[in-house]
Design brief:
This protein is mainly alpha-helical and 164 residues long. It has helices spanning 8-29, 33-49, 53-74, 81-85, 105-120, 124-144, 146-163; strands at residues 89-92, 95-98. The protein has one domain (8-78, 102-146). The protein has seven helices and two strands. Strand 1 (89-92) and strand 2 (95-98) form a beta hairpin.
């Protein structure tokens, strides 16, 4: 059954304003926690709004990835994936993913998951939330590692041009 949409526009507007402010402040401070913590309401509302089994799974996946990312940052866990996997990049779902500290993997997964949600869901509000999550994920990557951000942005743009 479809979720009520009476307050959905207002909720999405509030979440958007919070996301914009947190992204701007987080980038200004180069601190990803200022972006991650305010992103929780967007993902929680995404869980509420999604209805299909695959989109519900994707929403919960985003939630647990965000919690894992939060734990990695709070507890200052560092692990170099590139060194461990002995490669600088991997292809995931057709996207060339630059590797580095494990903390950059969470926002990359958030970005991929939000794209999946955007393409698989029909609701305007779930698409709206997916865009917020995507932009926030890229902002988190930038605050963690601007070099990986640049590589990932280049990879994403190349993938988009290859699909055209």
């Amino acid at each position: 059954m479809a979720k009520p949409t009476k307050y959905a526009p207002l909720i999405c507007i509030i979440i958007t304003i919070i996301a914009i402010l947190s992204v701007l402040y987080g980038i200004g401070q180069m601190n990803s926690l200022f972006i991650i913590i305010p992103l929780l309401p967007a993902i929680i509302y995404e869980i509420y709004r999604t209805e299909g089994s695959s989109t519900k799974f994707a929403s919960w996946f985003l939630f647990f990835v965000l919690l894992g990312e939060l734990a990695l940052i709070i507890f200052k866990i560092n692990f170099n994936l590139a060194e461990y996997l002995q490669t600088e990049e991997k292809t995931v779902s057709g996207y060339l993913i630059p590797l580095g500290d494990i903390k950059t993997l969470g926002p990359i997964l958030l970005a991929i998951g939000s794209v999946m949600l955007f393409t698989k869901t029909y609701g305007i509000y779930t698409k709206w939330l997916a865009v917020i999550i995507f932009i926030s994920a890229f902002s988190i990557i930038y605050t963690l590692d601007p070099i990986i951000f640049k590589d990932l942005l280049r990879s994403t743009i190349n993938s988009l041009f290859n699909k055209i």
